[in-house]
Automatic annotation (TrEMBL):
Pfam families: SfsA. This is Sugar fermentation stimulation protein. GO terms for molecular function: DNA binding. InterPro entries: SfsA, SfsA_C. Residues 29-165 form the Sugar fermentation stimulation protein C-terminal domain.
Length: 191
């Protein structure tokens, strides 16, 4: 059987170059990177023993989370992955647009943590040379509140930088995350 994909365009735009650095804008890339690294054990979830059994696109209650799994010691876990493409200098921020879906996912992770699962919110920063990560409070303040509450209830928030190019993205190192850091967008008129 021949299956043809119906598309509006003939090509995908995966990355753009701005001021000499490649920014991966593929919305599917963070989940692909996370899955590959979770399965390979190169993305270590704090407090969980390797190896992991990884199950993508898992439903729990009324939410679909990016990953569910079990650690080697039998501990069940959930990971929700968010791609980050917004930055000013070496500070990355999420979201680049208001997102009620992200708030729902954070609430779901908080409930899962309360019921004995280990819950993780994973930010994959899709551009290089980032040193820390925050939430863009002015864009969506409800997300800051949801994440602060989740952290107080044991949800772990992880942020990772990446190495990017015109056709590749590779997980880099964990970077500090603080949802209370101030963030402002670059003023394009000043460039």
């Amino acid at each position: 059987m021949l299956i043809t994909q119906i598309r509006k365009t003939h090509y995908d735009l995966l990355a753009v170059q701005r001021q000499g650095r490649w920014i991966n804008i593929d919305s599917l890339a963070p989940n692909h990177v996370a899955k590959e690294c979770l399965e390979a054990g190169t993305l270590k979830l704090p407090g969980l023993a390797l190896p992991y059994a990884v199950h993508p696109e898992s439903t729990w209650r009324d939410s679909r989370l990016d990953f569910a799994g079990k650690a080697a010691d039998g501990q069940s876990w959930f990971v929700e992955t968010k791609g980050v493409t917004l930055a000013n200098g070496t500070l990355a921020a999420f979201p680049d647009a208001p997102t009620t879906r992200a708030v729902k996912h954070v609430h779901t992770l908080t409930m899962a943590q309360a019921e004995g699962y280990q819950a993780f919110l994973l930010f994959i920063v899709q551009l290089p040379d980032i040193r820390q990560m925050t939430i863009y409070r002015d864009r969506f303040p409800e997300l800051v509140t949801a994440i602060s509450t989740a952290k107080q209830n044991g949800v772990r928030v992880l942020a990772y930088d990446t190495m990017t190019g015109p056709d590749q993205i590779t997980l880099g190192n964990e970077i500090p995350f603080d949802e209370h850091l101030p963030f402002s967008e670059i003023n394009l008129n000043s460039l």
